[in-house]
Amino acid sequence: MKLETLEGLDSYWRNAAYSLRWECPFVLPPWLQVWWRIFAEGLPPHICLVSCEEEPIGMAPIVVQAQEARFLGDPDVCDYLDFVVAPGQGQQFFQVLLQYLREQGVNRLNLGLVRPESMVLTELAARAAAEKCQVSSRQEDVILELMLPPTWEDFLQQLTAKERHETRRKLRRLYNSGQVNFHLVQQVSEVREKMEIFLALFGLSRADKAAFMTEQMRTYFRELAEAMAEARLLKLFFLEIDGEAAAAAMCFDYNSRVYLYNNGYDARFNSLSVGLLSKILSIRDSIGRGLKIYDFLKGNEPYKRRLGGKPVPLYRCEIVLE
After folding, report:
1. Reported pTM
2. Contact at 8 Å (CB) between 273 and 174?
3. 246 burial class (0-12, 13-18, 19+ CB within 10 angstroms)?
């Protein structure tokens, strides 16, 4: 067991010889590094790395404050989190981790929101229960996921007859409204300028979004976009009408999934449904690139179900160490 630095995690993530499973973008080193710079406020990270015969078997990206440990990240900007563990190594990794945390005086793990198949629920909970710890988990939120078919026409056929008709009608109306350009930004050299347009659209779409986007949050979004672009994971979509930005969607591609992280639109174009259509067009783009799952992330907005999203529960998990 050793403590690793955030910068040092890159070598484990990028080394294909290691079998660590980085299951979601929210635990990737570039994401954690940006979150730490913007939000950590001086708390020291505990990047707990466990190895067996010099082979890393698990990593815990946590912070320890007083007698509580929690994941790096927070629910405002990380929809769900987890540990990074090699296949078949969960029980050994968590046995070592729990022993270390006890030695540090930690008596509670507050692990926030996790997916049902997370290492937290499938491995850690069992190990903790075997060690007589108190384990609690309760559903608190939901994400919606869309299984992407091979073709755009297949996607349309998956929709209800009404939704299929409405999607086609709205797309026709959009493309008849003027010169429409839906394009993708992913090169680092373009991201800084284009993110200013995205942030402007984000604030224009709703009052609550404008309030959410504080100066600190703007800095976070800018730095996150650049870091993920450098890692070749950013997909920043823009919908323009007659040369004017009408909507944008910030997505990440990882492990054959596209994650719809956030979006914005200019309310002047509401009559053209640009907010919804920018997402639909990003689905079409994802199908064209052969991706398998479109993750709408947190929130139970009706449009996600109308487009075929299926609910996946998110659980809040807490463990009291005995």
Report:
1. 0.94
2. yes
3. buried
